[in-house]
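Hi team,

Filling in the usual template for the complex we talked about on Friday. All components are listed, including any nucleic acid strands or ligand strings, so the model treats them as one assembly.

SUBMITTER: L.P.
PURPOSE: interface mapping
COMPONENTS: two
RESIDUES: 462
SEQUENCES:
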Amino acid sequence: MTKPLEVQGLGYRLPGKGKGETGNGRLLVHEVSFTVGAGETLVLLGRSGSGKTTTLKLINRLLEPTVGEVRVAGERAADLPVTRLRRRIGYVIQEVGLFPHFTVERNVGLVPRLDGWPPPRIATRVRDLLALVGLDSDTFARRYPHELSGGQRQRVGVARALAADPPLLLLDEPFGALDPITRVELQREFKALEGRLGKGMVFVTHDVREGLLLGTRIGLMLQGRLAFLGTPDEFRRSEHPECKAFMAAA
Amino acid sequence: MSLWDFYARNSQEVLGLVGQHLYLVAISTGAAIVIGVPLGILLTRRTAWRGPVLGVANVFQTVPSLALFGFLIPLPFIGGIGATTAIVALVLYALLPIVRNTYEGVTGVDPAVREAGRGMGMTDWQLLTQVELPLGFGVILAGVRVATVVSVGTATIAAAIGAGGLGVYIFRGVAVVDDTLILAGALPAALMALAADGLLGVAERRFAWRGK
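RESULT (copied from the run log):
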């Protein structure tokens, strides 16, 4: 079976001349390779500016890779029209980015609508997804994002990303902006969801505890490179100084 | 003679001038919207053009209106004496607020919302029509409101080049030093400006999504 995500030799250099350590021409991601199987969650862990988010954006081509290959469900990402590629990848960001002028229902149903699903099928799907993320459809479907709490908004964000049943989900610090109690609550629920969904996920965070809780594997990024890749247990035991630094912070 | 006596005796003429004035403002603002909104959208996609285009629009805004009317008269096709020249000048004035607010309305959309839209696979056109324009609509409308109010005022000067409108009374009143006559032109123009401001202001608040 083809894996949801295969990344081979991925690299990204800022456009422009020069090869300095800062500014134009700087190498942000270098020689990153990994695969993510169905039901697997790869956590990309690292400090700010280590290239985690950049790597994520290279996968759904919000940034175009300078070198390397990305395959989503077996297909070369570079060969697909960019909008089609992105509709097959769920995308969740820290700021959520719900459309403020759409109801919860329309927000969640966005990608199916773009893909031309018939409205009754979208309605059913939205109901199911809201239930999946723990929101009562009758209460929430017709609300606007500004009528929701931060935690509810991110639940909607996750539901929206799952709407068209993509094989792959990219999550960029999805719980980073939430208060500690809500964050733990959502982490726990997300943990329970992971196994049930059977999707490939790439989860970016700088919170090592979150990473160890949610990841089936941890990829540690350091200065644009994948410095470590292994299971949470291997990560805990690793002698790599950056792994130790993160474990000390946990 | 009081203002009310004046209106009572010249009601036909007053209504005619009000009609002309509305015509000048409606046509010029309409044309400025048709040109300005797409131009503003274009600038959001070709940001390098933003400086030059807004710069040129700014220059038109700084030219005194009477001088602009004068400059346009000798030009072929768009110039001459009459309403056409006045409308061209009014369009040039109305462009800046409309172009600028369209640009700002579209680019002012929360970057996270735009990133989410792009990340979910919306095409640029879908993003523009389903997200950026609806969310920026209030700001665009604010530009239209400013343009309309300015047009109502500037259109009074159009009388100087024979385009008619309420300026006819104002110029006549200035020429013969008659306050009533000046007021006869100025009052309806002011009311018109207030009405436009009020109505478009209501519409604008109706579409204000930000802040929520």
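MY TAKE: The CA atoms of residues 147 and 176 of chain B lie 31 Å apart. Chain B has nine helices and no strands.

Thanks, L.
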